[in-house]
Amino acid sequence: MLHPIGSRPPGVYWRRRLALGIALLALIAFTMWVLSPGSEKKKDAAAQTSPTHSTGHSTRAAGSTPARSASGPKTKPASTSAKPSGSHSVFAAPCQAGALKVAAVVERPTYRVGEHPMVLLQVTNTGAAPCVQDLADSQVELRVYNGESRVWGSHDCLIEPGVAAKTLAVGQPVRVSVVWSGLSSQPSCAGTRQRVGAGTYTLYALLSGKQGTAAQFSVS
């Protein structure tokens, strides 16, 4: 390559090589010049279309969040808007004492000595909307009196633990029943329990400390 071989003088070969090298350099430079504007145009086009697409996407997301709050749990606005919606449509507020009508109810007006009367507490929501009330044993208390004398109480010897939240529909009575053994009792289950005799008895019902209307029944 450094010592050309041929019938012509070496200067001819060197000039040819020089011309060929210049031509190649020119071709390379031209190619780069041609390709360079095209790539810039592609970059410009990408830079112009990308913001337009992302802007359109964010606009749709912002518009869809209020209308479809439950369908977008990945975003904070969607989850925040879904909670109030669910709480109003599914969950009810706790019952207020003034909106509850409490009453004592007996299964039958007359029982025989030795029978186990079924006594009940009835509660009715008189408010404007459904509400939630705990009807667990700790909140429901039934008492039986004979005149002024206290004969029995459902909390005297046993109070079952737990919570029994119940949604009370407006105007629909809900009852909680207790089967009384017919034996007397005292608070803290003190004293000796005895079979009650014949007589007229009054049943009182209390819900979370609120006393309702009483009911009477007889034992013969």
At a glance:
It is built from two helices and twelve strands.
Question: How is this structure best described in words?
Answer:
By secondary structure, the chain is of the alpha+beta class. It folds into two domains: 10-88; 93-219, Immunoglobulin-like, CATH 2.60.40. 33% of the residues lie in helices and 28% in strands. The chain contains two helices and twelve strands. The protein has helices at residues 10-67, 76-89, and strands at 93-94, 100-106, 110-111, 118-125, 131-134, 140-146, 149-153, 165-168, 174-179, 199-207, 210-211, 215-219. The strands form three sheets. Strands 3, 6, 7, 10, 11 and 12 form a six-stranded mixed beta sheet that branches. The protein has a three-stranded mixed beta sheet with strand order 1-5-8, with no helix packed on it. Strands 2-4-9 form a three-stranded antiparallel beta sheet, with no helix packed on it. The termini are far apart. The model is unreliable at 38-89 (pLDDT under 50).
List keywords for this structure.
6-stranded mixed β-sheet; 220 residues; 2 domains; single chain
